[in-house]
Write a structure and sequence with these properties.
The chain has 419 residues and is of the alpha/beta class. The chain contains 14 helices and 20 strands. The strands form 4 sheets. Strands 6-7-8-9-10-19-20 form a 7-stranded mixed β-sheet, covered by helices on one side. Strand 19, helix 14 and strand 20 form a beta-alpha-beta unit. It is globular. The protein starts with a strand and ends in a 10-residue tail after the last strand.
Length: 419
């Protein structure tokens, strides 16, 4: 929450999903007094609390980019169906869906006594850093950020940034968090996939529906078309299919090279013939039972729900198969449990043997420590750094390293800071 004497806004409104779901601690009575909500991107840990805020009596608007708004609707509908949160009313959900306002990148937006600007964050489609200025001081909120360009997006726009105060994510802020070269990682991953397919096994890749899902599918498609991995069905299950359609409709927000690829040839990577979308639940049993090698790309990325639970229940015991983790696995999630070596896990009240091979290949949409340091160094006039959105030990390590030059701290919930 950012306040001036005249205005009160929220930067993001997320839920933290895990063994026990966690919610923002702002009291409902204060949520009613908020003037506007500005959302950096669609992932649930940045948008999933919106239905509750409207259910609690908020009557303002949600400001976000066009792709973020479209993706929020898909992700929140899925969240409502799977998690069935008790703090959301039908009226609140309906009100939320009528309250969106589109903001475009780089265009200053006057909001009462504030000027808001969205700046490309490079994390997922439509993701933004948010600059908030009262004409005297500027706060820059990073949201989730990635400085490196991917198959889908340009890296974050960090040229010409100015702010006295930075509120930044710190997912990979330890000195040890230096990502290996992605080309090296993907080559190892694709060799592993090839080995499993040639042995007749099935490869299951749980991934986030937005961002990682598209990157993984583009990677598999490219390598399959070039003959570097066998041509087998790539089954696409869960919310990834809806997300793919939204990406295609919003390709103008993707990398220029990707736009040209679609405009200047008959080949559309979002609709590759290598992809076999699973449109009905009944189709999953065929995928599981068919006697041929295949790749299954499905949600959810941290194995907290969605179709991955079915595939693990039916195929997890078979040592011929392989589970490939490509995203961050938060503490307390089933994904982290399996990543840490659990060979028997509980899924839908039943114990499931994990006999397949489990491998992790780091394909992150977040900045690593060198990128985070680069972000800090590129901001002109920076004095204060509020470090959020990370495991406490990593955030504290980065804070200690920044203290020599900046006023850096980990803000405490419900405490106010003046900048």
């Amino acid at each position: 929450m950012v306040k001036t004497d005249k205005t009160k806004i929220l930067l993001d409104a997320g839920v933290k999903l895990g063994e026990t779901d966690e919610y923002p601690q702002i009291p409902d009575k204060e949520l009613k007094t908020v003037d506007g909500i500005f959302v950096s991107h669609a992932h649930l840990d940045h948008s999933g609390y919106l239905p509750h805020i409207f259910s609690a009596g908020y009557n303002g608007k949600i400001y976000a980019t066009k792709p973020t708004i479209e993706l929020i609707n898909v992700m929140i509908n899925d969240y409502m169906r799977i998690s069935e949160p008790t703090n959301v009313s039908k009226e609140g959900l309906a009100k939320m869906q009528k309250s969106y306002k589109i903001l475009e990148f780089k265009e200053p937006f006057r909001f009462k006594d504030l000027t808001i600007r969205f700046i490309g964050a490079g994390h997922i489609l439509g993701s933004a850093m948010i600059s908030v200025s009262d004409g005297k001081e500027t706060i820059l909120y990073s949201g989730d950020i990635n400085l490196v360009k991917t198959r889908l997006l340009e890296g974050a726009e960090i040229h010409g940034l100015s702010a006295k105060t930075l509120i930044t994510e710190s997912t990979y802020s330890s000195k040890k968090d230096v990502f290996p070269n992605e080309t090296v990682v993907t080559k190892k991953m694709l060799k592993s996939i090839k080995d499993t397919l040639l042995a007749g096994g099935k490869v299951i890749i749980p991934t986030f529906a937005v961002g990682r899902g598209q990157e993984v599918l583009f990677l598999l498609d490219d390598y399959m078309n070039s003959g570097l991995i066998p041509k087998v069905p790539i089954y696409v299950d869960g919310m990834i299919n809806k997300a793919m359609r939204i990406h295609r409709h919003n390709v103008i927000y993707c990398r220029t090279e990707l736009q040209r690829r679609i405009l200047m040839s008959d080949f559309d990577p979002f609709k590759s013939e290598n992809f076999s979308p699973i449109e009905k639940i009944s189709e999953r049993s065929k995928v599981v039972s068919e006697d041929q090698a295949s790749i299954i790309v499905t949600t959810s990325g941290m194995i907290t729900g969605g179709p991955i639970m079915y595939y693990l229940t039916k195929m997890g015991h078979n040592s011929l198969n392989k589970l490939i983790l490509v995203g961050f696995q938060a503490a307390g999630t089933l994904g982290r449990e399996i990543q840490d070596g659990a060979r028997k896990v509980k899924i839908n009240k039943s114990m499931v043997d994990i006999g397949l091979t489990v491998e992790t290949y780091h394909l992150s949409a977040h900045a690593d420590r060198p990128q985070l340091d680069t972000l800090v160094q590129r901001i002109n006039g920076l004095k204060n750094i509020f470090i959020i959105h990370g495991e406490k030990v990593k955030s504290e390590e980065w804070r200690d390293d920044l203290k020599a030059k900046y006023h850096a701290l980990l803000p405490e919930p419900l405490k106010e800071y003046e900048v």
